[in-house]
Design goal:
This protein is mainly alpha-helical and 224 residues long. The chain is 72% helix and 0% strand.
């Protein structure tokens, strides 16, 4: 099969899957996913993560964590949005004449012009993977990945990302997290710092899944 035919097949499958995920749902359902997708909704969740990241260790460890998170954000957000998207220039489905008229939109939100890969997916999976590798706590890992998966679904439900935008963004975010974690471990070893999980009190980590569940429950109640 020629490359052009393969790409056409992928694009057709992408559009078919998106039109299945994106539908004109009830008002409460629209409200839930629109608010879930909004980055400001998750400020308390992010602040708790930052607190947990900076809580243990000495100033060297805190600086190393800050540097690692800054590098992760640079890769998963800035590189994706300011470089990759502008090189590939793939229109969002909400800006693609081939499918835009078939989609339902919430509050007429359509996003920017380009959507490949998804920043939400890249940032979400970069954060979730890095936390999983750093904390090694099942509840933190579960809540972080549920948050990331929900964010990815919300972008397709809102009609602003194709499934392949999400998939590639998630893969990039995961790759970036592994890369940054490897660099973090090497730097920690060079600085003679203990592994993060050996200096952190496990019960404090439970604030992360608690805030995640509290946020989701609040959105559910507001959606009723």
């Amino acid at each position: 099969m020629e490359t052009g035919n393969i790409l056409n097949t992928i694009n057709d499958a992408d559009r078919d899957l998106l039109t299945t995920i994106n539908f004109d749902g009830p008002t409460g359902y629209d409200f839930f996913w629109a608010i879930y997708s909004d980055k400001w909704t998750w400020i308390p969740f992010i602040l708790v993560i930052v607190y947990c990241l900076l809580r243990p260790g000495n100033w060297k460890h805190r600086l190393l964590i800050i540097g690692s998170v800054a590098l992760l954000f640079l890769l998963s957000d800035f590189v994706v949005s300011s470089f990759i998207k502008n090189v590939i220039c793939r229109p969002r489905p909400s800006h693609d004449p081939a499918v835009m008229s078939l989609l339902s939109y919430v509050n007429d939100y359509r996003g920017g012009a380009y959507g490949f890969p998804s920043n939400h997916a890249s940032n979400g999976f970069a954060t979730a993977t890095f936390l999983a590798l750093l904390f090694r706590n099942r509840w933190v890992t579960l809540s972080a990945f549920l948050w990331a998966v929900g964010s990815c679904y919300s972008r397709m439900y809102l009609g602003v990302h194709y499934p392949t935008d999400i998939l590639c963004g998630a893969l990039l975010g995961t790759l970036f997290a592994f890369l940054v974690f490897i660099l973090y471990k090497k730097a920690a070893k060079r600085l003679a710092l203990l592994p993060y999980r050996e200096i952190y009190v496990s019960r404090e980590m439970l604030a992360i899944p608690f805030i995640f569940l509290l946020t989701v429950l609040t959105l559910l109640i507001l959606s009723l």
